[in-house]
Specification:
It is flat, with a radius of gyration of 22 Å. The N and C termini lie far apart (80 Å). It has helices at 2-33, 43-60, 74-81, 83-98, 124-141, 166-182; strands at residues 64-71, 106-111, 114-120, 153-159, 188-191. The chain contains 6 helices and 5 strands; from the N terminus they run ααβααββαβαβ.
């Protein structure tokens, strides 16, 4: 009887230990792939997601698009209102985006106030529509909480080219984003997808946008 009880207790302890180890393993995996502030996937996850997109594109000929977004004058927000307010802005931005993308789309925090949206099954018209809708929504709805200041974002977008590497694809989207920032912010620049179009806000607008 004693032997039986000891065996049962040993089995139970081993089971509990295994369950706890699995729980901690999954938590560590989550911490390694998810941005702790916003809850979206991080840059490491993005690298994996881009490679999976390239493999799927080669296998199925499905089209993919990237949209890079960067909040305009975000450093000014942190400097003037504090990092807690800046964190609120990032959380509000993520909420706005997630409500307007498909379940198959993937949002990543690339770093700081910069985010990357990976879109599957989009043609040039679809990429343009999504980018312009997000740009419009952010301009209209993203605000500093308890302050009468709007926040805008600049966008760079790129469709995946045939046999293109993930690095080259991301660099094109980043270059388009840089051009959007350089040419005045609060606008979208498309890399080889559709003609660049000035979507800047009207002159004389107030708030943190140019």
């Amino acid at each position: 009887m004693v032997v039986f009880t000891t065996t049962v207790m040993t089995c139970i302890c081993a089971y509990v230990f295994a369950v706890r180890n699995e729980y901690h393993r999954k938590n560590l995996e989550l911490l390694a792939t998810v941005d702790p502030l916003t809850g979206v996937k991080n840059r490491r996850s993005m690298d994996e997601g881009l490679q999976m997109a390239l493999a799927d594109a080669l296998r199925t000929n499905r089209s993919y698009g990237l949209v890079m977004m960067d909040l305009d004058h975000f450093k000014r927000i942190n400097d003037e209102y504090g990092h807690s307010v800046g964190d609120e802005v990032l959380l509000d931005l993520v909420s706005l985006i997630q409500k307007r993308i498909r379940n198959t789309d993937q949002l990543y925090r690339y770093g700081g106030e910069e985010f990357v949206l990976l879109l599957s099954g989009v043609d040039p018209d679809g990429l343009e529509l999504i980018a312009r809708n997000l740009h419009k929504i952010i301009r209209q709805q993203l605000r500093l909480r308890c302050h009468d200041s709007k926040i805008t974002a600049s966008f760079g977008a790129a469709l995946l080219r045939r046999n293109e590497s993930a690095e080259a694809w991301l660099e094109r989207a980043d270059a388009a984003l840089y051009e959007a920032k350089r040419s005045g912010r609060d606008r979208i620049v498309f890399s080889g997808a559709v003609p660049a179009q000035d979507t800047s806000s009207p002159a004389g607008s107030s708030g943190l946008a140019n």
